[in-house]
Request: fold
Amino acid sequence: MSWRFLRALSCPARIIAAVSPLIPLIPVAAGFVALVAGILVLRTYGPNYRVGRLLASTLPARLAYTGRDGLPRVVPIWFHWTGDELVMGSLPGAAKVPALRAKPEVAITIDTDGFPPEVLLVRGRATVADVEGVVPEYAEAARRYLGEGPAAEYLAQLDRPGARMYRIAVRPAWVGVLDFETRLPAPLGGVRA
Reply:
């Protein structure tokens, strides 16, 4: 049986080098998800790319982090998958930025509303970088969420002289996929952390 390894889940045709079969894999309906050197990799068998669909969707990610007061927070946020990391943008003054710098451990979910839901679960460490102007990946996300015309208008409002944003990047350290058909949560005999 031949395997195809897909690095850029939003573009399933991109194949990366074959990796040792000893890599730990998480079975999913469309194949397998693995972490190889910190890069999310999808082994697929067929045309059903659930993970790729979620990463290419206009569904918001839900970013869970620990607030400066030590209490949990969850915020909906636009994201862009680069093939290596989930990247989000934030404007100055957002409470999540100092909180993420203090405690970078995060959990992210991208999930559908319908039943049965499809759910991508990610855990990792967030890195926060100051950016002059608009975060490039945020601009990509805006085009995906809003469409080219409305995104251009929105980004023009943000990208003014002296504008600053924060680039929040999460390289997956753990990945889980649920579809409630073939991949179930732990209480139902499925994914275990």
